[in-house]
Amino acid sequence: MPEKPGAWLMGTAKHRAIDLIRRRQTLERKHEEIGRDIERAQESTDPDAAIDEHIGDDLLGLIFMACHPVLSKDARVALTLRVLGGLTTEEIARGFLVPVATIAQRIVRAKRTLTEAHIRFEVPRGAEREARLASVLEVIYLIFNEGYSATAGEDWVRPALCEDALRLGRILAELAPTEPEVHGLVALMEIQASRLRARLGPSGEPVLLLDQDRSRWDRLLIRRGLGALDRAERLAKAMGPYALQAAIAACHARSATAAETDWPRIVALYDAVAELAPSPVIELNRAVAVGMAFGPAAGLDLVDALVSAPSLKAYHLLPAVRGDLLRKLGRSAEARAEFERAASLTENVVERKLLQRRAAECGAEEMAG
Amino acid sequence: MRVLVLAKEDHQSEAAKPPTPETMAEFQKFNEELVKAGVVLGDGRLYPSSQAKRLRFDGKKRTVIDGPFAETKELVAGYWLWQVRSIDEALEWLKRAPFNAGTYEIRQIFEFEGM
Fold first, then answer.
1. Residues of B numbered 42-61 whose beta carbons fall under 8 angstroms of chain A's beta carbons: which are they?
2. What's the fold here for domain B2-108?
3. What is the SS3 assignment for A40?
4. Where are the domains of chain B?
5. Separation CA A239–CA B10 (nearest Å)
6. Which residue, A190, A197, A255, A176, is CA-closest to A226?
7. pLDDT tens string A343-364
8. CA A251/CA A220 separation, integer angstroms
9. I need a labelling partner for A317 at 20 to 30 A (CA). Which of A139, A336, B26, B36 fits?
């Protein structure tokens, strides 16, 4: 037995944990800076018996800590990428197109907040666990989405962020294998990521789901995603919001052509999501599915009901969807105005060009009609 | 990025001798660590080249060559598909593998820019 079992355990734990998340510096720092508590907590533990269990719990505890609801969303994202993804402050700043100093400050503040709020380093149990897990999943999905459809900048996708999020999700699924929504989120990300290649045209322009060349979808990721969805379904009594969204993504993944898509099933799945996690964005997606399943007029009715939703006021996809439905109904002039509005609302350069092109096409249809 | 790790095991795999339980257990432990770190996307072990076929293209001509193949040192006996942040990370992982013979090759898979 070493002289200082606690320190020895931490040393060993550190080495093993490094193996797990591969970036030596990050983890040592993380243990020193954030996880000061664990050292104290582990002084009394029998090292031999505890190591294996603790490594997993250490990592899981860190994930829960970095995603603690006491932190703002931005802070959680930055801290998670820094501490668990092993990204440098510069890499995070580049990923989110903000100055390095901003990210550095976010991380410093986040750590201070955790200390001041006396957040304990632990894996929450019972009722608290669910809420805390929801926060973890939210952070991972936020990271994924920023990579999947960049909200700002010159690029339409930033695949590196998707990869970071996916990897965090996969690690989490290994650490918490009995949580259905973890598998649900992994399934959702795997299936969405399977389309990354097909989302970009030859000159980097965005290609929307129904226009994509499905032969370019990544079969391996689809297979992994369907596997994760299967695990989520088997573990859950009732599917959670992530598993449901993964099931929607799976509907697309299973259809060989866009025309074969089972839209009524997608509508039913959106109904279920809307019931569990009502949000105007989900309603908007549901409206798109309704438009495909039951005709553009039915979809437009639903979209029109959302126009007054305050949270969608600056959301460019609302006029984009509305424009699309109006166009299908032959109302080219109104459609053009909607696409122009959508173009003015997006911060993403590539997306703006796509929307402007749609507006121009509607303009041409107007002239012809 | 994704890398393909190609296992070139010299004569061992060609002899089609199953590994000892100890070797298997060690390997599985290592593989499990990789899975837990979110590294492994897929893997597979290949049958000996005595069961393999080669097809050579020469203009319109196709020539079938039956295994076994002679260049045992270069024959792929198995593969891993890994998700890593860099070749260096892959190398770090691979160095820790419990192998005591053979050559393992790390090749980055071509993906679209930034991937």
1. 42
2. Alpha-Beta Plaits (3.30.70)
3. helix
4. 2-108
5. 49
6. A190
7. 999 888 888 999 999 999 999 9
8. 16
9. A139
> Mutation test of the interface with chain B: which of A170, A213, A220, A221, choosing the one with the most B Cβ atoms within 10 A?
A170
B65 by DSSP, 3-state: which? strand
Classify burial at A199, counting beta carbons within 10 Å of its beta carbon; exposed 0-12, middle 13-18, buried 19 or more: buried
Cβ–Cβ contact B97 with A under 8 A: no
Chain B interface includes A18 (CB < 8 A): no
CB A92 within 8 A of CB A82: yes
For A206-231, how does the pLDDT look when each residue is reduced to its tens digit (9 = 90+)?
Answer: 888 999 999 999 999 999 999 999 99
Instruction: Say yes or no: B115 contacts chain A, CB-CB below 8 A.
Output: yes
Task: Give dist(CA A149, CA A351) in Å, integer.
Answer: 9
DSSP code of residue B110: P
Tokens of B13: 């795999």
pLDDT band at A79 (very low <50, low <70, confident <90, very high): very high
CA distances from A231 to A191, A276, A303 (A): 14, 20, 34
Mean pLDDT, residues A222-244 taken together: 96
- Indicate the residue of A171, A175, A220 with minimum beta-carbon distance to B41: A220
Mode of pairing for the β-strands spanning B2-8 and A347-348: unpaired
C-alpha span between A347 and A10 (Å, rounded) = 46
Distance, in angstroms, between B4 CA and closest chain A CA? 14
Q: Do A198 and A216 touch, CB atoms closer than 8 A? A: yes
The reply to whether residue B93 touches residue A20, judged by beta carbons under 8 angstroms, is no
CA gap A294, A53 in Å, rounded: 52
Q: Which of B43, B85, B93, B94 is most worth mutating to test chain A (most A CB atoms within 10 A of its CB)? A: B85
Q: Is B83 on the interface with A (CB under 8 A)?
A: yes
Element of type H or E holding A20: helix A5-21
Which pLDDT belongs to residue B18? 74
- Distance, in Å, from the CA atom of A308 to the CA atom of A194, rounded to the nearest integer, reads 35
Q: Is the pLDDT of residue B74 over 80?
A: yes
A170 near B CB under 8 A = yes
R_g of chain B, CA atoms, integer Å? 16
* Chain B residues lying within 8 Å of A197, measured CB to CB: 111-112
Query: What is the enclosing helix (H) or strand (E) of A101?
Result: helix A100-116
Contact B41 A21 (CB under 8 A): no
The amino acid at residue A151 is T
Is B34 in the A-facing interface, judged by CB distances under 8 Å? no
**Residue A27 confidence (pLDDT) above 60:** no
Of B92, B114, B115, Cβ closest to residue A22: B92
